[in-house]
Design brief:
It is a single chain. 29% of the residues lie in helices and 22% in strands. By secondary structure, it is of the alpha/beta class.
Length: 221
């Protein structure tokens, strides 16, 4: 039997580094509405759920024709991250959850479709798909380089392929998410995307750059 895969969009009020990040004006819309409309273009999804403690965000979900689930304020706090993952998964009835953040507005439709298809065809070699990107930078920790020898400095493109999770797309069995209290499985498949798709909005510099790139790519189409 074909498993039911739903996209889960978690949003909450109270963002600190970018005030009202999820619903502030962004490219003639807002990050939440942009993500909803993008996911509505994805034909191999079985549903879209917005989970939030914020009534304005839930109203945006309803006005765009997707499921809206009210989150208890306790699970919208800063110190309940893993319990939050468990709670929102418990309130998202389906077989498989595609956990996707609105703060990744540049992930492409094509990448989302490929990730879903890959998961539907998966074997036992992995239990989650999580987007990541290679970090080609000269990294140091505690006063020491961790990915190169300063006495034989390579070109940046020749640095080892260290992958950073960017949390744009994360697909995992709902029961596994509830069990692990996280959307990264014990055997994750890291789906590598480029630097543009990997952009994750964390502060105002990210927000403004992502908006610039979003408008540029949209005009290109």
């Amino acid at each position: 039997m074909k498993k039911v895969i739903k996209a889960l969009i978690p949003v909450r009020s109270g963002s600190k580094r970018v005030q009202n990040k999820n619903i502030r004006p962004f490219a003639d819309s807002n990050l939440l509405e942009i993500k909803i409309k993008q996911l509505q273009r994805i034909n191999n999804l079985d549903g879209i759920v917005v989970n939030s403690n914020d009534d304005t965000m839930l109203d945006i979900a309803r006005s765009n024709g997707v499921e809206a689930v009210k989150r208890d304020e306790y699970y919208a706090g800063d110190n309940v991250t893993n319990e939050m993952y468990k709670n929102i998964a418990e309130n998202c009835p389906c077989d498989v959850i595609m956990y996707t953040n609105v703060t990744s507005p540049l992930i492409s439709d094509e990448t989302i479709i490929k990730c879903i298809n890959l998961y539907r065809e998966k074997d036992d070699s992995f239990d989650s798909i999580n987007t990541a990107n290679f970090v080609k930078e000269f990294l140091w920790l505690d006063g020491k380089p961790i990915n190169y020898d300063p006495n034989h400095t390579p070109k940046s493109q020749d640095l080892p392929d260290i992958a950073a999770l960017n949390f744009a797309i994360n697909i995992i069995e709902r029961d596994n998410l509830i069990k692990r209290k996280h959307y990264i499985g014990s055997k994750p498949y890291l789906y590598i995307v480029d630097r543009v798709e990997a952009i994750d909005i964390d502060d105002m510099i990210d927000f403004e750059f992502a908006e610039f790139m979003y408008k540029k790519l949209r005009m290109g189409k």
